[in-house]
Amino acid sequence: MHGKTSNSTLRLGFLSDTHLNSVFNGDSLDRALKKMSNDKVDIVLIGGDFVDNDPRRINGNIKEIISKYKFPKGIYAVLGNHEYYGGVDRNIHFIQESGIELLRDDILTINGLNIIGRDDKTNGSRKDLKSLLKGIEDSPLIVLDHNPKSIKESLENNVGLHLSGHTHNGQLFPMNHLVNYLYLNGYGHKKIKTTHTVVSSGLGTWMIPYRIKSKSEYIIIDIDYFYKPVSKKN
Q1: Mean per-residue pLDDT for 91-105?
Q2: pLDDT tens per residue across span 188-223
Q3: Among candidates 88, 113, 85, which has minimal Cα distance to 102?
Q4: How many CB atoms lie within 10 A of CB 85?
Q5: What predicted TM-score, i.e. pTM, was given to this entire model?
Q6: Between vectors from CA 232 to CA 138 and to CA 2, what angle results, nearest 5°?
Q7: Does position 228 have pLDDT exceeding 50, yes or no?
Q8: Is the pLDDT of residue 25 over 50?
Q9: CA–CA dist 112, 109 (Å, integer)
Q10: Which residues contact 51 (CB under 8 A, 6 or more apart)?
Q11: At residue 125, what are phi and psi to the nearest 5 degrees?
């Protein structure tokens, strides 16, 4: 028989730009995952730059930290530019060995909700969003892409929610004004046409371990959506 359209909810935890290295050794990641777990997050999405170039510089057992927390729908990540800068194969191995599932131009489907994890734009041969969405119709869509330059593609393809990082909200004042000039959304939540865009300032920092007029953050998003269950035969 055919299932009727149903209402579903998902509590999504989003963090980006952890930039794990010899200074950011996993303590902030541990705190964020603990708070997400306490807040009953269903799934964690990591928006790239999990590693700050070379995983051999990381002080701390990231696999041990991640193994402490169980999220019903798992932990997933996309790559950022720094994973490519530091040797993409080495960083892919580190991320997967840490207990995180990697999405590289992949589609994750949870109860009719499609999460499209895009490879970073540093990979010039990554698939365009339109080709990734081929065959997906009348379905709620979330795009996870490190660099918010791709927001334009999400708008063109009627994506419901676009998640990015990369900008750090400038990290240091007055660079926050520059990122808001360079991107359709340089930081925070902004609805553009019918697409909700969320750009995180990141959990870690780049090059220097402090911020001015910017903050480290993780984000929790409650999603209510309708979906049509897969048809079943009696």
Answers
A1: 98
A2: 999 999 999 999 998 866 666 655 666 889 999 999
A3: 88
A4: 15
A5: 0.90
A6: 55
A7: yes
A8: yes
A9: 6
A10: 18, 19, 20, 21, 58, 82, 83, 86, 91, 94, 95
A11: -105, 15
Biggest alpha carbon–alpha carbon distance for the chain: 63
Domains and CATH numbers, the chain: 9-227 (3.60.21.10)
Contact between 130 and 152 under an 8 Å Cβ cutoff? The reply is no
The answer, yes or no, to whether residue 186 has pLDDT greater than 80, is: yes
Predicted confidence band of residue 135 (pLDDT cuts 50, 70, 90): confident
Q: Name, in order, each residue with C-beta under 8 angstroms of 202's C-beta and a sequence gap of 6 or more.
A: 15, 16, 17, 18, 19, 49, 165, 168, 169, 216, 217
Residues ≥6 apart with Cβ < 8 Å to 131: none
Q: How many CA atoms lie within 13 A of 173 on its CB side?
A: 4
- Side-chain-facing half-sphere of 202: CA atoms under 13 Å: 30
Q: Is 26 exposed, middle or buried (0-12, 13-18, 19+ CB in 10 A)?
A: buried
Distance CA 23, CA 78 (A): 22
For the chain, how are helix, strand and coil distributed in percent, rounded to 5?
Answer: 25, 25, 50
Better-scored residue on pLDDT, 187 or 41:
41
Reported confidence tier of residue 232, pLDDT bands at 50, 70, 90: very low
* CA 198 centroid distance within chain: 10
